[in-house]
Amino acid sequence: MSKPEFVYVIYIHATPEKIWQALIDPEMTKEFWGRHRNRSDWKVGSEWSHQNYDDASDVSVAGTVIESDPPRRLVLTWGHPNQTDVSRVTFDIEDFMGSARLTVTHFDLSPEMLKAISGGWPAVLSSMKTLLETGASLPMTRRNWKKAS
Amino acid sequence: MNIKNFKPAIVYTIYIASTPEKVWEALTKDEFSRQYFSGQSVEVEQRIGGAFIMRTPDGALHISGEVIECEPPRKLTVTFNVNWPALVEKLGPTLVTYEIEPSGDVVKLTMLQSHDRDISDDILSGGRAGWPAILSGLKSLLETGHAPTIKMAPPERMLAALKELGIGTP
User: Fold this and answer.
1) Do A140 and B148 touch (CB under 8 A)?
2) ipTM
């Protein structure tokens, strides 16, 4: 049996370019992704990492860029540093009548990872939508969750 | 009807900068639903056993159901039966639950579409495509005062699967 996957679709009143920027611009991710940044040159084969915005040595997720086709599609491997459990995430961005449809698919998940990310993606992506549509993110997603717990 | 026999087939969660009362209102009042639910008007009698109805913009009955659980502003469960010939007979009733929870300074809205039997992925494809669009629109409406037009293409895969089962489709 194949490993579980998690799919989340959200419609955002913004251009695909703005959504792509929101995924990689630290000044935007820190607002909706628990005060983290995603660091890479976003070229196929490059490393990428999900870091504490205030402390680059604090890396919670890292991996490799598998596909990078701005502003349409980004595919990353996704694993916690020092753990062998590696999953894969695709971001697909499509035009949709003046808005855009963002589909995040997280593949090859262990049951523990499935549980963890099923709570995370809806909050992060809901807040990204709010940031792009209103100029301000959802307050709860501006804090570093790890520090909060 | 024993709702214990129903299992969620589609679950969609979205966080909204609003209050539980406002989200409840958006889910149960037609002046809101017309803006984010493909132009459809919702009518709910807010009591157990009350009627739940959705009408298309031309006034035709599209969804008819009954209120099963009603705890404003936290939880609403209704039977959500599309008014197509033989649909309920072949698929059984469809249950839709909205759960509204405060989460930090915002609201967590969870929609569960449940069935009392296995439903094929082909048939579920309609709801899997539709709910994110509908609830993304509800969120925009409450946060910005405006729901973007998200006009979906007809769910061809679902319609073909229903037709195969002898269910009357438009």
Assistant:
1) no
2) 0.94
Query: Are the C-beta atoms of residues B151 and A97 closer than 8 Å to each other?
Result: yes
- Residue B12 CA to residue B111 CA, distance in Å, equals 5
Dist. CA A20–CA B13, nearest whole Å: 22
Task: Give the gap in angstroms from C-alpha B132 to the nearest C-alpha of chain A.
Answer: 6
Model-level pTM? 0.95
* Alpha carbons A133 and A127: distance in angstroms, whole number: 10
Q: Taking CB atoms and an 8 Å cutoff, what residues of chain B touch A127?
A: 15
Question: What does chain B look like in DSSP terms, one character per residue?
Answer: --GGG-EEEEEEEEEESS-HHHHHHHHH-HHHHHHHSTTPEEEE--STT-EEEEE-TTS-EEEEEEEEEEETTTEEEEE-EE--TTHHHHH--EEEEEEEEEETTEEEEEEEEEESS---HHHHHHHHHHHHHHHHHHHHHHHHS------PPP-HHHHHHHHHTT----
pLDDT in tens, chain A (149 residues): 567 899 999 999 999 999 999 999 999 999 999 999 999 999 999 999 999 999 999 999 999 999 999 999 999 999 988 888 899 999 999 998 889 999 999 999 988 889 889 999 999 999 999 999 999 999 999 998 765 43
Give the minimum alpha-carbon distance from A10 to chain B in angstroms, rounded to a whole number.
6
Q: Is B103 on the interface with A (CB under 8 A)?
A: yes
Minimum distance, in Å, between the CA of residue B48 and any CA atom of chain A: 30
d(CA B83, CA A60): 49
CA angle, residues B23, A138, A12, in degrees to nearest 5: 75
| CB of B13 closer than 8 Å to CB of B103 | no
Residues 34-93 of B with CB under 8 A from A: none
